[in-house]
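> call design_seq(struct)
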């Protein structure tokens, strides 16, 4: 079940115990009547890629733009940032651009040009 209280009720965590949940008969009941509230720490999720802790940045492409074209425009601007990263840190391109490159790489060994210019 997902519920969202009014903005004023969400202002402080201490207000959570007073959150009123609408019931089937139309009357609201305090959340403490249907749930046990307790505050606990939880281990954060560490996403990994190739067994390395990873932070992923995602974006949607709008209009007629294509991922590879935008990547080619943005990548050079990331070079100064890459140069200043501490040892062991790196910025890599992934997603559709990475998948496309992997697909092209898999067919490249079998490609042979039959034109006279090559």
């Amino acid at each position: 079940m997902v519920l969202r209280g009014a903005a004023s009720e969400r202002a402080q965590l201490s207000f959570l115990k007073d959150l009123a949940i609408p019931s089937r008969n139309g009357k609201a009941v305090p959340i403490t009547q249907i749930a046990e509230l307790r505050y606990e720490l939880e281990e954060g999720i560490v996403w990994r890629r190739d067994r390395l802790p990873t932070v992923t940045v995602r974006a949607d492409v709008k209009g007629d733009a294509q991922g590879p074209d935008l990547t080619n425009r943005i990548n050079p601007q990331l070079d100064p940032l890459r140069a200043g990263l501490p040892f062991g840190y790196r910025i890599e391109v992934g997603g559709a651009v990475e998948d496309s490159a992997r697909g092209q790489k898999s067919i490249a060994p079998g490609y042979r040009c039959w034109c006279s210019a090559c």
